[in-house]
Amino acid sequence: MAAPTEASSVSTDPLASTQADAVEVATFWLGDGGANLKNASPYNVQTAVDKVTTRGGITPDTKPGSVPPVPPATSGEANTKTPTTSGKVFFIGADGQPHWCTATAVQSQYRNLVATAAHCVYDTQGSGATLDKWVFVPGYADETTPWGLYVGKQAFAHYDFTVYNDYDRDYAFVTVYSGVVSSASGELTNFGRLVDNVGGQGLAWNQPLDSSVDVFGFPAGPHPDGRRPYTGETLESSSGRTTAAMVPSLKAEEFTAVDSPFTGEGSLGSSWLFRYHKSSGMGYLNGITVSVGDTDGNLRYDTSLSPYFDGELSVIYHAADASWSGSILPA
Hints:
disordered N terminus, six-stranded antiparallel β-barrel, mainly beta, 4 helices, Thrombin, subunit H
């Protein structure tokens, strides 16, 4: 595992470090008519916790900060109902099977950044290494890749998570190569940079609690009572106000919570968008679902949980923001 960079908190690890590796990963997912995408199941690691306790508040470690969102480069492409930035990350789990989580495209100088839960990037069940064959598919629906498929190149996470499994730092940013699609003949063709195609959400940290956020994800699993209100096939949304929380089972002391009916499987990595505007589909990422809880004991999940986005998170983001990825195919 990589040591902290220049005594900072950044841990960075390669996913597909060469263009040849990236082509192999893209072919794995898009080959045979996208069979591996179709056969993937929602990731079920650390999807729910048994107890959530409230706390008085969280003290920001720096001044509040933010990075503004950017719309897609092509005018008229913004989705006025749900953000085009949301999608699914696909990977091979510790069980050797294909799985997926939710993720979102985030603004960056190279238009190449994806944010999700760190345990949807790193294998917390085994060696702690990065999960294999990691890709992002924005807008994945009806077994299609409407905005292309983006192979992960480099993962950026907090050193305390990658080394100590500190769930207060369960977030990651991944740089991706430019997108590809599969032609009618089965060959890969270029599809352009991620944020140029779908836009990029902004990012906000050290924001006050009791802020209103809109949560977007692909919940798919059951409630404790066995009911399955979601299929994982469509992007769902909920909204609420953030509060401070602690989760003893994860030894998490600085979580934020929001009322949400999402089930855990599939919604891991869901984006919490602060100051979200439906007209543009844009806002500021201010949380990422890493687990859910049933706080009133009625056997229905009612709360989504995220690490608090503080100045430590901004350090990880800025390290990822400075990382170029390029294309996996000739221009």
